Amino acid sequence: MSHPASPKSLEQLNGFTFEKIINEDPATHSLTLLGSFPDAHGQNEITAIVRIEKTALNASDAERLFGENSMIRRAVLEESTDIYTWMFAWLGENRERDVKINVICPATEVHIRKYTRQEVVMISETPELYEQVVKPYIQAFPPSRTQWVENILTGLSEQNKLLYSSDQFVILPDMKWDLKTISSLYLTVIAQDRTIRSMRDLRKEHVGLLKSIRRKSYSIVKNKWDLGPGSLRLFIHYQPSYYHFHVHVVNANYQTGNAGMMVGQAHLLEDVISLLELEDGTGPGIFERMTLTYAVGDQHGLHKAFKEAGAVLDG
Q1: What is the CATH classification number for the domain harbouring 52?
Q2: Is residue 5 part of a domain?
Q3: Which of 32, 151, 221, 228 could form a disulfide with 156 if both were Cys (CB 3.0 to 4.6 A apart)?
Q4: How many domains are there within the chain?
Q5: Residue 137, annotated as binding a ligand
Q6: Across the strands, what pairs with 77?
Q7: 204 labeled part of a ligand binding site
Q8: Was 212 annotated as part of a binding site?
Q9: CA 31 – CA 35 distance, rounded (Å)
Q10: Is residue 44 part of a domain?
C-alpha cells in the first residue's frame, strides 16, 4: 500500500513543491528533483524525490513521424551547412521542444554505413599498416566530404555560432549539443591547418597550436558557462569521423554511451601534448612511430582492409 502523500493523479502531482535539482542526466534525458508533497491532511510537507525522464521514441511510430499526418507538430531550423541540417521539433504545442533532428542530405553510402548500428572489433594499427592502408584511404576522400568544414572556416556558414575565430582555429558548439544543457556541454575546435588530417600527422611543432586550443577553450567555457578546466574533458578521436583535425571539448561530468568518449577512440589532449613534448625534434615523430590500438565498426571503410591485413586482435 502506497504512502498517503504519494501522488496518484495529475492534480496531486501538481501539488509538488520544488526545492532544487539534485541530478541531471542528458544521457537518459532525465531530471531528478528534490521537493515535497503535502500529507493527506494538507498540514505537513513530506520530502519527496521526483525523477522525470523523456520516454524513448517508439519504433512502431517511425512511419508516422513525417508526412501528411505527421506526429511532428512544429519544427524550427537551428543551422544548415552543406549537406548537414539541424532542427528542433515539437510533438505538440505549448511545450518544451521534444526532439533534436539531424539531417544529412544527400547521404552517401559512406554516411549510411557510418550511422548503421554495427559490431566493433579492436585492431592494432602499426606504422607500416598506416602507410600501406590507412593513409591511402584518407587521401582518397574527395574534398566534398569536408566541404561543410571549409564552409565554416571560410565564413560561408555557422558564423553566428562561432565562439572564437583566428588564423589558427575556430571554436563552436558541436551539432550533438542542444545549446542549453550545461551538463552535456559539447564544443568542437577545428584547426585552420588543412595539412593535419588526423592525430597521426601531429608533430612537436604543433604543441604550440594544441596549447593555444587548450588555453582558449578553457577561457571561453569559463567566461560563458563558469566551468573551470577541471570540469572539462578535451580529446581527439582516432579514427576521427572526418579527416580534418579537430578537438572535442566536453563537460567532464557528461556520462554517455557514446563510443567516441571511450577508450579505443578518444585520446586526451593533455596526453597527446605530453607525448609530443617527448620528441627530440629529429627523426620521425612519435605518432609516426607508435602502434595505435582502437575500435573499428564492421561498417567502417577500413574494416575489410584491416581483416585482410591481419590487424584484428586475435589472442
Answers
A1: 3.30.200.40
A2: no
A3: 151
A4: 2
A5: no
A6: 87
A7: no
A8: no
A9: 13
A10: yes
Sheet holding 99-104, edge to edge: 74-81, 84-90, 99-104
Report how far residue 202's alpha carbon sits from residue 24's, in angstroms, rounded to the nearest whole number. Answer: 37
- Between CA 127 and CA 183 the distance in angstroms is 38
Residue 243, marked binder: yes
- In 91-185, at which residue ranges do the beta strands (DSSP E only) sit? 99-104, 120-125, 164-165, 169-173
Residue 63 sits in the same domain as residue 148: no
Per-residue pLDDT of the chain (315 residues; tens, 9 = 90+): 557 888 877 787 888 899 888 888 777 777 888 889 888 887 888 888 888 877 677 788 888 888 888 888 888 887 777 778 878 888 887 777 788 778 888 787 778 887 877 888 899 999 999 999 999 999 998 898 899 999 999 998 888 999 999 999 999 999 878 888 898 899 999 999 999 999 999 999 999 999 999 999 999 999 999 999 999 999 999 999 899 999 999 999 887 656 567 788 899 999 999 999 999 878 899 999 999 999 998 888 898 888 888 888 775
What are the strands, taking DSSP E only, across 55-194?
A: 74-81, 84-90, 99-104, 120-125, 164-165, 169-173, 186-191
Note whether residue 66 is domain-resident: yes
In the DSSP assignment, the letter for residue 229 is G
CA 247 to the chain's CA centroid = 11
The answer to the question of whether 133 is labelled as a binding residue is no
Q: Give the C-alpha distances (Å, rounded to integers) separating 17 from 34, 44, 50.
A: 9, 12, 11
Residue 307 is assigned to a ligand binding site? no
The domain of 75 spans 10-115
82 and 172 in a single domain? The answer is no
* Locus of grid cell 502506497: 2
Q: Provide CB contacts within 8 A for 237, sequence distance 6+.
A: 199, 248, 260, 265, 266, 267
DSSP-derived 3-state class of residue 32: strand
Cell numbers given for 55: 520516454
Residues acting as catalytic residues? 246
